[in-house]
Amino acid sequence: MEQKLFAIYLNDHLAGAVLGSELTRRVAHENRGSPLGEFLEHLLAEILDDKRTLERVLQATGVRPSPIKPRVAWALEKVGRLKLNGRIRRYSPLSRLLELEGLTAGIAAKRSLWQSLGLAADARLAEFDFVALRSRAEMQLEEMEPHRLEAARLVLGSR
Predict the structure, then answer these.
(1) How sure is the predictor about 33, in pLDDT bands with cuts at 50, 70 and 90?
(2) First-to-last C-alpha distance (Å) of the chain
(3) At what angle are helices 3-30 and 35-60 packed, to 10 degrees?
(4) CB-side neighbour CA atoms (13 Å) of 151
(5) What is the chain's mean pLDDT, rounded?
(6) What pTM, to 2 d.p., does this model score?
(7) Which whole number is the average pLDDT over 109-120?
(8) Which of 37, 93, 129, 152 is 20 to 30 A removed from 159 (C-alpha atoms)?
(9) Using alpha carbons only, what angle is made at residue 52 by residues 146 and 49, rounded to the nearest 5 degrees?
(10) What's the rounded mean pLDDT across residues 4-33?
(11) C-beta of residue 19 within 8 angstroms of C-beta of residue 106
(12) Alpha-carbon distance 149 to 138, whole Å?
């Protein structure tokens, strides 16, 4: 494996973890006191745990964390709040749907990361249980789906 490409790959996923944790934190806040908010609080804890695991992967493989990519991801999440959502000051059901779709895409990418790392022929990765990590991402996707579908129903109606 080419170390430079491996480092880019891991750092891109680390940036994604930053973006995902920030987005999850905000959506949980906007939906606090609801079943969705409770689910997202639990999901946030798991996302942060996965981020710590990814940081350990970087450390175990000698990959230096990018000083820039996580900051850019953090800023992108903040800029993403400016999207037109049909409401000027209030949280919109469309925002909820788009954010849940974004989180779903991020979790799917994380599942792919764990699956890909599980295929890597690298003894430095032997301590990590990528099968369990991939399974957790799959469970997160399964648990997200009813919330995403409900958000879609609220925005698009039952067609």
Answers:
(1) very high
(2) 49
(3) 160
(4) 24
(5) 90
(6) 0.88
(7) 97
(8) 37
(9) 35
(10) 95
(11) yes
(12) 17
In sequence order, the 6+-apart residues with CB closer than 8 A to the CB of 152 are: 97
Instruction: Quote the CA–CA distance of 153 and 142 in Å, as a whole number.
Output: 17
User: Which SS3 state, helix, strand or coil, does residue 96 take?
Assistant: helix
Report, as an integer, the average pLDDT of 138-158: 94
Q: What is the pLDDT of residues 49-72, one digit of tens each?
A: 999 999 999 999 999 988 888 777
DSSP letter, residue 82: T
| Mean of pLDDT values over 70-94 | 65
3-class SS string, 13-59: HHHHHHHHHHHHHHHHHHCCCCHHHHHHHHHHHHHHHHHHHHHHHHH
Residues in the chain: 159
Single-letter amino acid, residue 23: L
**Scanning the structure block, which residue is given the tokens 């991020």?**
106
Q: What CA–CA distance (Å, rounded) separates 75 from 69?
A: 10
Please report, for the chain, how many H helices and E strands are present, in that order: 5, 0
The CATH code of the domain at 3-156 is 1.20.1260.10
Q: Residue 97: its pLDDT value, please?
A: 94
